[in-house]
Design goal:
This protein is α+β, with helices and mostly antiparallel strands. It has two domains: 230 residues, no CATH class; 80 residues, no CATH class. Helices cover 24% and strands 27% of the residues. Strand 5 and strand 6 form a beta hairpin. The longest helix has 23 residues.
Length: 326
Amino acid sequence: MKRTSVLAVAVAIAANLLATEVNGHDGRRLEVIVVDDQLAVHGYNSGGVDQGGNPRTYYNAMHDDWQNIAGGIVAATADLPGFDVFNATDSIVGGGSADRLQGAELTLTLHGAVKWDNPPASEPYGTPVLIDLLPSEVITIGNSTDFVHNNAPGPLTLASNISAQGEHELDLDYSVALEPEGVLYALQWVLSTDQPGISDSANIFTILSPDSSATNGLRLQSLHLEKYLSTPLIPGDYDRDGKVDVIDFEAWKEQFSHELLFAGAGADGSRDGIVGPEDFLIWRNHVGLASPLLDNSVSIPEPTSVALLIAVFGALTLSSLETNSR
């Protein structure tokens, strides 16, 4: 882009961010939590309910939309997904983390970005095909102190000296000198803290879809990608619906032998980057469990059908594991 165009984009983005400060940040957000002494984020929607559930039945992923800039400027911005640290009283997902993180610093480090180009128009969406961005697809992310972009990843200070009351609206400003259409972008982050005894998060993904007011917003495809990249609440929940059942077995079977770009995605329960027999064993050992986030109406798979699957595929899986260990 020419210098004048870059300046125009910068001015438009600044105006958008000023409006954001006035109007607030209701919508899809990520609450910072500590699970088994490891950082994680749990998605919720402060602006209402969407098809993903509120809160989500998985950790570490959330999507939202680009907003194209008006006035003939070819660019888009977003101010969500954002982050929060809540105390036990204010926590959306339960528990809160402000007490564990009081006085600490939170750092969010960008590791890279990928895209899902032209996802299927309707279900089944299948396994997302994730590829690198083109050189012209530069996504800049920043806050009041730091800026990074996908070609120069690095750390952003998300919060310093966290108070006992927590820190709300720890938001990022996303921008791109394009009007995305037919493509979903996924930014890969890791959250860390200087608080002793708390380890870094697994991969966290913020996903951005096209402006739905101008084009097909790919909302359902965004949700599918969000689930695929997320961390399940219960091991073996490979479709991220909050329960471990026969559908998760089908997901494992469909993805079996896939080598994944991101460890822990999809049906990679062992987080080794490959969907293999050990991921079946993880499913088998947790089948029938359900997240407390689900209500009592959730159906658990019939014991006979699950037992049959375990008997047939368990024998094959154990045989495969023994063969590989020789």
